[in-house]
Amino acid sequence: MQGLMMHRDLRIIDILRHAAEAHGDAGIVSARVEGDLHRQSYPQTLGRVAQLAHALTGLGVKTGDRVATLAWNGHRHFELYYAVAGIGAVCHTLNPRLAREQLLYIIAHADDRLLFVDADLVPLVVDLLPDLPEGLRLVVLTDRARMPETPHGALCYEELIAGQPATYDWPDLPEDTASGLCYTSGTTGHPKGALYSHRSTVLHAMQVPLCQTSSFRAGHCVLPVVPMFHVNAWGLPYTAPLTGMTLVMPGPNLDGPSLFRLMDGEGVWSAWGVPTVWAGLLSEIDAQGRIPQGFGDLVVGGSAAPRVMIEAYEARGVNVAQAWGMTEMSPIGSHGVLPPRYDGADDEDRITAKCCAGRRIFGLDFKIVDDDGTRLPHDGDATGELYVRGSTVISGYFENEDATRMAMDAEGWFGTGDVASVDSEGRLVIRDRAKDLVKSGGEWISSIDLENAALSHPAIAACAVVAMPHPKWDERPVLVAVASGAERPALEEMHAHMAGHFAHWQLPDDLVWVEELPLTATGKISKLTLRQRMADYVLPELRGGAA
Ligand code: AMP
Question: Domains along the chain?
């Protein structure tokens, strides 16, 4: 048809070009591995990104090549995101907290050509070195004066880009060019890669601020505590420049006092990350008797935000929004901004509304299905596996046909592995990971719901509910808890505390106290490791005379 609108491909570099022009006062503040606090504006960043692009092409990086990063959140990592994608190559973020075998598998599977590494992570690479593919070039993200001892032939980042031209003739890439690669931590089997495109990344960058409206304010600061190696720091390296926000990058120190100091000093408005991090910040807030100055917005995702945590931040004047998403989705799928009708609602109703995973973002479709794959109604009650479809969802795993076959259904939807219900407003309630649900006597018990109820007891600092084998009921729930002080309530007391929300048969059969709970490489409580640790555990009822 004649006269149709122009077609311009969506390109990641255009986000930064726009920011450099429209939001020249904003930029990136980085708490660097070197120990300093570094500042640079978006126009300066665009210049350095161009220099890096020249350096990359000089090193022979071509369209489609994978360039790996092993780095914390900082401006150099940001520069890699844009320069690598800008020249048509793929920025492959590696998670330094993964086990050695997983890292080696991922690097080999992705066939990485170059590896950019933060100075403090060089020892990790030295450890991997004997088993790394030959020809993988190493670049250390620092200047010559601060180069650590490195293997022979390693390059220095600042030397590499120094003297390169600060402009680049960015190629007109098709929007379906691959731009980024991130592997899921993989609880079973090998890690699987999600390959993002320029199109999916730019669309995600536009969709998220459109929905998660409380967080994005031009001229304000946003803090991604969620790492840049975990699904592109939930897209913040793209959404922040697009909306004129300054990124405050925390580097490797994510403990409560370090975060408080950084947020307080920079006046961070919005902070994003997993619940475990916000528990640490909350302790520091209590120790200081105040919130960091300027702080007003918290986005919690990656696992369910406990109600007590939402209450605690809201009571201190911080607006909390929960988000749900996954590596396979760029990653945000739902946002926790409440509909306007909650504006005048009482606290109880507002907090209850914030305890779910929020409403679906524009551009994404949800469906929930039963075990036979039959669609269930979006009535807020019917519960089944959640499937998603949209321009920000993978169409299959990177170079992995078996995993792709398992994940995609016949209609081309992606199976999330989450068990959920959706209501008529698109509001999502994640009941559990399918593999974390407790299946007792043919009924499901949500571990998330039990954990939430247990956490509202003041003696419990952190907890996880795991399913333990039972000959009659298949599985029974056990509460594993970390105490917040000296008090250790008995199981009966916990039952009394939780009883209002559950039928008696849903309550845990045992309460096990531990010093700490194991975390995954992305900072979530690792139920897999916990179950492994409890391999020899026997439910009290089955312990013969010993119980
Ligand atoms: P990842 O790919 O590592 O980001 O993990 C994605 C998974 O984290 C999802 O499939 C969910 O099981 C879980 N998850 C993420 N956000 C939430 C949330 N707000 N509530 C409950 N579970 C969540």
Answer: 13-354 (3.40.50.12780), 363-390+412-433 (2.30.38.10), 437-545 (3.30.300.30)
